[in-house]
Amino acid sequence: MILLTGVRKTKKRIHSIPRAKTNSPTRKKHVSEKTHPSFFLSGRVISGTGQAARFLQIPKYAKPLSRALGRPVYAGTLNLQVNPAEKKRFLSKCAKQNVPAFLWNNQKMGGLTFFRARTKNQNVLLVVPEKTRHPANVLELAAASNLRKKLGLHDGDAIELSPKRAA
After folding, report:
1. For 66-81, what is the mean pLDDT?
2. Quick one: which of 125, 119, 12 has its CA closest to 71?
3. How many domains does the chain have?
4. Torsion angle defined by CA atoms of residues 73, 53, 139 and 27, in that order, rounded to the nearest 10 degrees
5. Is residue 93 included in any domain, yes or no?
6. Are 160 and 41 in contact (CB under 8 A)?
7. Which of 43, 66, 148, 149 is 20 to 30 A from residue 25's alpha carbon, by CA?
8. What pLDDT, on a 0 to 100 scale, did the predictor assign at position 38?
9. Dihedral sign, Cα of residue 92, residue 96, residue 98, residue 99
């Protein structure tokens, strides 16, 4: 067995080894280009308004999100309270896609941008709508299941996200 910085190599597989958090500029990057576990965004779970459930049932929103997840998107989001500056920096590290604005039932629906990430071994999409009632410090997470139930989360719980780049 050979031990590399952050990676353990065996004959069959390469495994990531968890690292202690540090801001050292000399840290070496992981071998994998798909995720960047050395960079995280932390947030606290907060209650939302319930509006995302309605919007995520609209096919023009649901189809691209479901395609990105590889499974149907759950009609609802998990809201996180985050630092706005860290949010901006984090989103710059994630693969992103846009859904343009469109007309639906004679109503103009705003576009949205979504970013790929992971949390607790779950693929998630960070949804940033053009039109929103949320302040800049709130981030919405969409997934294939109800994250609150699946991960046993409650308001005030801390959660960490890692960016996911395009394959």
Report:
1. 95
2. 125
3. 1
4. -20
5. yes
6. yes
7. 43
8. 59
9. negative
DSSP conformation class of 36: -
Q: Please check whether residue 54 lies inside any domain of the structure.
A: yes
- What is the SS3 assignment for 131? coil
Report field, pTM of the whole predicted structure over 0.85: no
Residue 95: its pLDDT value, please?
86
Opening angle at CA 63, ends 34 and 75, nearest 5: 95
- What string of DSSP letters covers 66-103? HHHHTSPPPSS-EEEE--HHHHHHHHTTS-EEEE--EE
Domain containing residue 49: CATH number: 2.40.30.30
Local confidence band at 166 (pLDDT 50, 70, 90 cut-offs): low
In single-letter form, the type of residue at position 130 comes to E
2 domain-assigned? no
| Structural domain boundaries enclosing 84 | 36-163
